[in-house]
Each structure stands twice: as structure tokens, then as C-alpha cells.
Specification:
Blueprint: E1 2-6, H1 14-27, E2 31-34, H2 40-53, H3 57-78, H4 83-102, H5 107-131, E3 136-138, E4 145-146, E5 151-152, H6 154-160, E6 169-173, E7 176-178, E8 184-186, H7 191-203, E9 207-212, E10 233-235, H8 236-244, H9 255-261, E11 265-269, E12 278-281, E13 290-305, H10 315-325, E14 333-335, E15 339-344, H11 350-357, E16 362-376, H12 385-393, E17 400-403, E18 409-415, H13 419-431
Parallel strand pairs: 1-2, 1-9, 2-6, 3-6, 9-11, 10-12
Antiparallel strand pairs: 4-5, 7-8, 11-12, 13-15, 13-16, 14-15, 16-18, 17-18
Length: 436
């Protein structure tokens, strides 16, 4: 059993959808998870923002008209017999979004509005699969996918795909789910990858394939660094570190469900289906000591200075409890006798956090930073690895260094203005022709 997931670019046009259908049939996919057509979620988010602001009926109408043209045009290029059904589905969807925007009810309406892209894209694609002669069935993801404490109702899912062994192709939505309040919700940006992993784990799939427009996981960020190359094999821990610290091809939560069940994850390029991509599994992989580098932007550093730390126990617990209270994860942390420095990638609750931390000591906040993470086989028994990385960083100023928590990675904090230079320096020194 295979679970395949395709991102927004992969289903971003009629031509791309045809290519996706070819891949699904070739791979014999049991369940296919689709994102919304590229650009849809951003447009729906803008509609929700205008609705929240109030008095923006003209702007909302223009955005809805643009979305309608986009989907009707795609349906016209993709379908013949099913065109009328697809056009009716587009019309109903736009009416639903308009109604939610007109009677905006805060977060509830926003979640409903944003979810419509996945619902419409999967409906359109399922019609196309049927039109090309495939036995295709559309599944409603919120019937088995739940947010909050994210989970899949495996019993409902397995019953829904009972005919997969007899050649039925099941199409469902990524990203969306039923929230704790029983209403339509979502798993957050990039949640389609996570949806596919959870579905694969619940079904005991043989593999989960994540299809994007990039040929696998690269050793560095090709947006900023020239001469990067795809990594053909990785283990789960390496991939998890890279995804968490900024590798855009994979959602950070994707790896754990598959690792728990020992299900390989394949990262493939829908624009070049025959390219080998990257295989992520529990197998140890040899080769180069340094596997890849990734960067995560939007990082805020928080430093707490307090003489009460000196020779005291319980101080760090009190710091961590503040972040737990406001549901804000910590990325990096370093300590000295009288100071704690840590980083977060969300500042939405930062004012409340700073107010409570100020009761413990003097607090400094430093915004506009990036974490650059080097992943590889950094055996703590080996000498010289830390020196190699520091020398490779060159003249880039570093604000924090996290080393020792894992033998898989070392993380460096720098001002975002220096991020590209640091990525290039590390690429030249750690992956250049003369590197080990």
C-alpha cells in the first residue's frame, strides 16, 4: 500500500494534474493526499483577513472572482463530461466563502474559508480521474483526521479504503481536519505532508511518497547557494533535524509517524517523475560526514540575566514553565552562571512571556535572526569537527552555538542579514571539492 502526497505546485494547473494522475496510476497509489492548487490558500487567507477587517466587500468580491476564473479555467482544460459538475462545485465553493466572509465569526470563519481550497481541488481532481477511466473515490479528510492532539481515526480510515486492494484510487485532502470544537480546522502551513504521514502510519503503508517540484532533499538551500546537490539516502533523524531547521521540502512533523512505524518516506519531483529523489528510512547511511545544511528564519533570541541563577536549582524550570504556559516552543538554549539565552520562532505571545520572565531577572530581546543547522555524523568521540565548522563559518558573526545535544547536528545563530553568507561559507568548506 502506498500513500502519495502532492503539493500545490504539483496540482497547480490542468497540465500538472494530468502529470499527477499519470504518477498515481504508475505507482499504484492506494491513497493520494492533495494540497490546494498553488496560490489558493494565500488568496483565501487574504479573503479571511479582509472579512476580519470589515467593510472590504469589493476587495473580497475581486478575490473570489479571480479564484472562480482560475478553477473554472482549469476545469475547462481538464474535463469534458465532468465540466458541468466541476463548474457547479466551483460556484458552490465561492458562495460558501462569500457567505462566511459576509457573516464573519472570527477564527471559526477563517478556518472554514481557508479549507475550501483543498476541498475544491480534490473534488476537481477526482472528477478527472473518473473521466480517464479510473475507479476513483473522494474521501472527506475531516471524517477521520482530527486536530488539537492530532490523530487519525484508523478504524474509520481503514473502513473507507477497504477497496484499495481492488484497484480503487482514493483521493483526499491534506491540511484540513476536524478541530477540538467539532468544526472544520487545519493542521497549519505544510500540514499536507503531516496528513500523508499520519494516513500512511494509520494504514500501515509500505511507503509514503511526498511529491513536490524539487528533486529530493538538497545538501543546502538552492535558493541562496549555487551548486547544491540532492541527497539520495538519509535516515529519519537526519531528515527530522533538517526539516525542523528550515528544509522547505518537508514539514517538520512528517517524519515521526513514519519513523514510529518504520515506513520509508520518498521525496520525489512531480515535474521529473523519473528522477530518483531522496529515500528516508531507518537505515544508517555512510558517506560524507556532513550531510546537509538548512536555515530557519524569523528567530527571536531571548536572554535572561539574573544573579539568582548562581548555584540555584529550579531556575531553569521556572523559565521553561513560562514558555509552556504560552505554548511557545524553544529551539536553542545556552546557559552560563548568571544568564540563559534561548531562541523561539514565534513571537505571537512574546509580550506576555517577557512580562513574566522580567520577574526572574533582566530580559533582552533580539529579533531578526536565523538558525543555520549543520547535520551529519558528528560523533562526540571524534576530535576536530567543531573546529572544522567554526573555521568554515569564517568571518560571519555568531550569536549562539548549540552543540552536544545531538550527535546529528550543530546549530548556529546569526543575524538574518548574514544567513546567506554563512550558508555559502559552509557549503564551500564542508562540501567543496577538497572537503572530506
Amino acid at each position: 500500500m502506498k500513500v502519495l502526497k502532492f503539493g500545490g505546485t504539483s496540482v497547480g494547473s490542468a497540465a500538472n494534474m494530468r502529470r499527477v494522475a499519470d504518477i498515481i496510476v504508475r505507482e499504484g497509489a492506494s491513497v493520494t493526499v492533495l494540497s490546494a492548487m498553488s496560490g489558493t490558500t494565500d488568496t483565501l487567507q487574504r479573503i479571511a483577513s479582509f472579512a476580519a477587517a470589515g467593510g472590504c466587500e469589493e476587495e473580497i468580491a475581486l478575490l473570489l472572482a479571480g479564484l472562480k476564473r482560475k478553477y473554472v479555467r482549469c476545469a475547462g482544460e481538464l474535463l469534458s463530461d465532468g465540466y458541468a459538475d466541476a463548474s457547479a462545485a466551483v460556484e458552490r465553493t465561492m458562495e460558501r466563502v462569500a457567505a462566511e466572509a459576509a457573516a464573519y465569526a472570527g477564527e471559526v470563519s477563517q478556518r472554514t474559508i481557508i479549507a475550501q481550497g483543498e476541498l475544491l481541488t480534490t473534488a476537481l481532481f477526482t472528477l478527472y480521474m473518473k473521466e480517464r477511466g479510473c475507479r476513483a473515490e473522494l474521501l472527506h479528510a475531516p471524517a477521520f483526521m482530527y486536530g488539537g492532539e492530532v490523530r487519525v481515526d484508523g478504524g474509520v480510515l481503514r473502513q473507507s479504503v477497504a477497496d484499495a486492494a481492488r484497484g480503487v484510487y482514493y483521493i483526499t485532502q491534506g491540511f484540513i481536519c476536524t478541530g477540538p470544537d467539532g468544526r472544520l480546522d487545519n493542521l497549519g502551513r505544510g500540514g499536507s505532508d503531516y496528513s500523508a504521514a499520519l494516513i500512511g502510519a494509520a494504514l500501515g503503508a509500505g511507503e509514503v511518497q511526498i511529491w513536490t517540484d524539487i528533486d529530493g532533499m538538497h545538501n543546502n538551500d538552492p535558493r541562496y547557494v549555487e551548486g547544491t546537490f540532492p541527497i539520495r539516502r538519509m535516515n529519519f533523524d537526519e531528515a527530522a533535524e533538517l526539516a525542523y531547521f528550515g528544509a522547505k521540502i518537508l514539514h517538520p512533523s512528517t517524519i515521526q509517524p513514519c519513523k514510529d512505524r518504520g515506513i520509508p518516506v520518498l521525496l520525489k519531483n512531480s515535474m521529473a517523475p523519473d528522477a530518483p529523489g531522496t529515500v528516508i528510512s531507518d537505515a544508517e547511511v555512510g558517506g560524507h560526514v556532513y550531510r546537509a545544511v538548512a536555515a530557519k528564519d524569523g528567530i527571536t533570541a531571548v536572554r535572561i540575566y539574573s544573579a539568582r541563577m548562581l548555584m540555584a536549582y529550579g531556575f531553569l524550570r521556572r523559565v521553561f514553565e513560562v514558555f509552556e504556559k504560552y505554548r511557545t516552543p524553544i529551539d536553542m538554549i545556552t546557559t552560563s552562571e548568571v544568564a540563559v539565552s534561548l531562541t523561539v520562532d514565534s513571537d505571537c505571545r512574546l509580550p506576555e512571556i517577557i512580562a513574566e520572565l522580567s520577574e526572574l531577572g533582566t530580559v533582552e530581546v533580539d529579533t531578526g535572526n536565523s538558525i543555520v543547522c549543520i547535520v551529519g555524523r558528528l560523533d562526540h568521540a571524534e576530535h576536530g569537527r567543531a573546529r572544522e565548522i567554526m573555521e568554515a563559518a569564517g568571518d560571519v558573526p555568531l550569536k549562539m552555538i548549540s552543540y552536544g545535544a545531538s550527535h546529528r547536528s550543530i546549530a548556529l545563530l546569526t543575524d538574518t542579514r548574514n544567513r546567506t553568507r554563512l550558508l555559502r561559507n559552509l557549503n564551500d568548506k564542508l562540501f567543496g571539492k577538497d572537503a572530506e
